[in-house]
Design goal:
about 75% helix, about 210 residues, Helix Hairpins, mainly alpha, two-stranded antiparallel sheet
Length: about 210
């Protein structure tokens, strides 16, 4: 059972301050939520484009490697892949969006010098390596965007929960408490005035009787 608050002016002032703070906090959370949704929405088109591209191209790249392996054998292909690893340069920088640290990635993929045997490997391997090299930068960029979207989505969910807790629980509770205390103080004030009027009436009656 919930304990009723003390009906004092000091308590009323304290509740009013808490209510003002809760209302300001709710507005800040709503503004933050709008900003987070805007940031998330701006990233979705590029994420969708890269996701569709990677999902479409990756099976083709894998198929090219599978065909090259079928023609040349597993060992020569694996040795060639190790020797043909591209040089990847990553430009990593952190940015803060609405207080959330997000990683921004720019990747540059450069072809390595061909050192594997062209005699022991299929020409399909050259095409497969070239296709993978072209797709690698998109894969890295996609991973960074997906990580940012996950972080934004998690923060949106947390912010929405806090906003809803203020809007539907704390603020109504404080408003109810404020009204209860204000009503009780008015009731006490009316009762005090009534007693004073009775005392005054009794004193008047005594004065009349004495005269």
């Amino acid at each position: 059972m919930r304990r009723k608050p003390n009906a004092t002016r000091m308590e009323l002032q304290r509740v009013r301050k808490r209510l003002e703070l809760a209302v300001r906090g709710h507005k800040l959370l709503k503004d933050k939520l709008e900003g987070l949704m805007k940031e998330l929405t701006e990233r979705l088109p590029e994420y969708k484009r890269l996701r569709l591209k990677v999902d479409e191209e990756w099976p083709r790249v894998f198929q090219r490697f599978a065909l090259a392996e079928a023609e040349s054998g597993t060992d020569p292909i694996q040795a060639a892949i190790l020797q043909a690893r591209p040089r990847v340069t990553l430009d990593l920088r952190m940015e803060r969006i609405m207080g959330i640290p997000l990683r921004h990635v720019e990747a540059r993929v450069e072809a390595a010098a061909t050192t594997y045997s062209l005699v022991q490997t299929s020409p399909r391997l050259d095409a497969a390596i070239a296709a993978l090299r072209e797709l690698l930068a998109d894969i890295l960029r996609l991973a960074a965007i997906e990580s940012a979207i996950r972080a934004l989505a998690a923060e949106i969910q947390k912010t929405r929960r806090r906003s809803n807790a203020l809007e539907h629980v704390l603020i109504p509770d404080l408003q109810t408490t404020r009204k209860y205390i204000a009503d009780r103080l008015e009731e006490i004030a009316r009762s005090d005035i009534s007693r004073l009027m009775k005392v005054k009436q009794m004193l008047l009656e005594r004065e009349v009787s004495a005269s």
